[in-house]
Specification:
The protein is an alpha+beta fold. About 10% of the residues lie in helices and about 30% in strands. It has a four-stranded antiparallel β-sheet. It starts with a strand and ends with a strand. The relative contact order is 0.30.
Length: about 210
């Protein structure tokens, strides 16, 4: 069976200028590459086979009435959004990974930083996100609740800006406070310098 997957990524990106957030922590961080250093602003629906466009939910099927957001094309815009280091907290990139849990081992997960809810940068991030609310028509989202500043129609239920920095099998301790403290001491903050929309179609056969 032939499958066509339309991926729509709406994100704020960080340039690969040698000052990216993965630097400053020595061997503890395995840098993923410039293309992956970003925070997703909005999860958009895929076309057939209707899969959520985040790795964590990549096997979760959406209702058949869901459609890709119309009118999206590849687009890039320069921006300036700075997130202070004090507004960043490390977390395991898995459901419930904000807080330590016995069943979550950060050494076996992707690990990254989230932007605190009290950060002043959240308002700027939300302004880019809000551009796409009108595109979530009934034809697109079906029975789902539309996205707002705190809720996602697709992907993770709750919106929380985050950047994945560290790959699994990383040797980290369960307590991420130590690496968080080292990170904030080494990196003054994160500067997003571009707003990006990327659409691509993958074809596969089952």
């Amino acid at each position: 069976m032939k499958r066509e997957e339309l991926w729509q990524t709406i994100a704020l990106g960080v340039s690969d200028d040698g000052e990216t957030p993965a630097y400053g922590l020595g061997n503890a961080v395995r840098r993923k590459g410039e293309r992956d250093i970003h925070t997703t602003v909005l999860n958009a629906a895929n076309g057939p086979p209707l899969l959520a466009p985040t790795r964590a939910a990549a096997s979760k099927r959406l209702p058949r009435e869901a459609r890709a957001l119309k009118g999206l094309t590849n687009y890039e815009e320069p921006v300036e959004i700075e997130v202070a280091a004090e507004d960043l907290r490390f977390m395991a990139m898995t459901p419930g990974g904000e807080n330590p849990r016995p069943e979550i081992d950060p050494a076996r997960c992707h690990v990254g930083v989230r932007v605190k809810r009290t950060s002043s940068s959240r308002q700027a991030i939300r302004s880019f996100r809000a551009r796409f609310y009108p595109l979530e028509t009934m034809e697109v989202i079906g029975v789902r609740q539309p996205s707002d500043h705190n809720r996602n129609a697709f992907g993770a239920r709750h919106f929380q800006p985050h950047i994945t920095l560290i790959r699994p099998n990383n040797g980290l301790n369960r307590d991420l406070n130590a690496i968080g403290t080292a990170f904030r001491a080494a990196v003054p903050g994160i500067k997003f310098d571009r707003f990006v929309v990327r659409c691509r179609t993958n074809t596969s056969y089952n």
